[in-house]
Amino acid sequence: MSAALVLDLSGDDRPGGTAASPSGPGTERPGTPSADPGRPGGTAPGTANAPTVVTAPHTWEGPCTQHYLIDRGPEQVPPPPTEQDAPGWIAALDAVPGGDQLLRLTVQGKGKRTVVLEALHVRVVSRKAPLPWNDYVMGVGCGGEVSTKAFAVDLDAGRPTAVPVGGQRMFSYKTSETDPVILNVAARARAHDVSWYLELAWSSGSERGTIRVDDDGRPFRTSGNLARPAFAYPLGWTEWIDNDVDTEGR
To answer: What is the pTM for the complete model shown?
Structure first.
């Protein structure tokens, strides 16, 4: 089973611009629940049936569609990686997804008991002016994009909610050990540099809990990339070039 969410990170999920980090011990990867029974939506005593969540924070919607903002000139940036090598490339360059970021969450129950995924909430940690860095696109001329969008979340709203589009149904979903659920979360920022994470609410019988979903203990980060100097690395070339350059006549 799979579903998708589209997040517009141009806004915030709470009035005042900052969402506090949840109290409690935080989240281990993958899929450890945050325990805070006193907080609305927190974890009730006992989390034996909490599902596991494995996060792929740098999933590409297409082989050549992803942009990254990097605080370096093109002569200091190595060639673009493949999707499977992207995490190491991103970490080495302190790169930040530009404009769009696609996450893939694989959620799986434990044992034979069914787990109900009740909701997925977006929590904004900070929202600033977009990064003034160069924009690097991962490829040129690779064909059209494959859309995975099924839910839209407008973070310009004071309290954004996930709105199903394209025939996708709203939460909840069910998962078990033999029936994982894949959630594709498409985040979008245009006017801000946003640090954010997700909270996945679940229940199983009398147990309820919330799992924090982030980038290995850190918030995800997505920044608008409009009007930034843009560079591409076309097939057959050996250097980054201005993305507006016509390469057909080379």
So the answer is: 0.77
